[in-house]
Amino acid sequence: MARAGLTAERVTRAAADLADAVGFDNMSVSALARSFGVKDASLYSHVKNLKDLRERVALLAAGEMVDRIAAAVAGRAGQDALAAFANAYRQYALAHPGRYAATQVSIDPAVLAGSAAFARNVELTYAILRAYRLSEPDLTDAGRLLRSTFHGYITLEANGGFTHVRDVDASWDRAITALHFLLQNWPATHPRTAP
After folding, report:
1. Is 41 a domain residue?
2. Which sequence ranges form a coiled-coil region, renumbered to this chain (predicted)?
3. Is the pLDDT reported for residue 50 higher than 50?
4. Closest by alpha carbon to 57, among 125, 124, 4, 104?
């Protein structure tokens, strides 16, 4: 008999927890149904299919992550804001590997268009970059640089890719300092905007 109280939100949160435990790619409707003690069919009244479930986890994770980043950067500017942004990003990714992986997959543009979390993430990133007096297309280029730098570092760290005795936190801090220097000296496509 199906457990009472299943909702799309509860199913999504349980799927996010499962993704953190077994990996986003290993998350399945069957494993999730087992965790609730129900048949797979019981979940399909709350989610359409595995693709829908994965998108729901991605949206949940994006919201959680941007909330943490926004709280971390509130009232900060310049290098302090950049470091707060980067540290909140890294802490979330390392604490919630399955959820973080969900935020890195391609999502249907129609689903993305309806997501306040993804829009807030872009706005927050651009707000930090505007402090460096960047405008388009430099905003997009710098945003991609930050995301790829953070993602690459975090992925290597999570997979044990840093084997040198140098402390990974110290290297992270130096990377943020280097990014700050680069952003201050960005080779602008157009003249910089006023601060």
Report:
1. no
2. none
3. yes
4. 104
Give the tens place of pLDDT for each residue, 175-187. Answer: 999 999 999 999 9
The residue segments making up the domain with residue 95 are: 57-184
Share of the chain above pLDDT 90, in %: 77
Whether 5 is covered by a domain: the verdict is no
- Give the predicted TM-score (pTM) of the model: 0.90
Residue 91 within any structural domain of the chain? yes
User: Within 10 A of 96 (CB to CB), how many other CB atoms are there?
Assistant: 20
Contact 169, 157 (CB under 8 A): no
- Dihedral (CA of 170, 176, 179, 181) sign: negative
Q: How far apart are CA 152 and CA 33, in angstroms?
A: 33
d(CA 144, CA 141): 5
Integer Rg of the chain from CA: 19
E-assigned strand segments in the chain? none
- Are the C-beta atoms of residues 42 and 36 closer than 8 Å to each other? yes
Q: Are 134 and 192 in contact (CB under 8 A)?
A: yes
Residue 178 covered by a domain: yes
**Does the CA dihedral 80-177-138-101 come out positive or negative?**
negative
The 8-class DSSP code of residue 46 comes to T
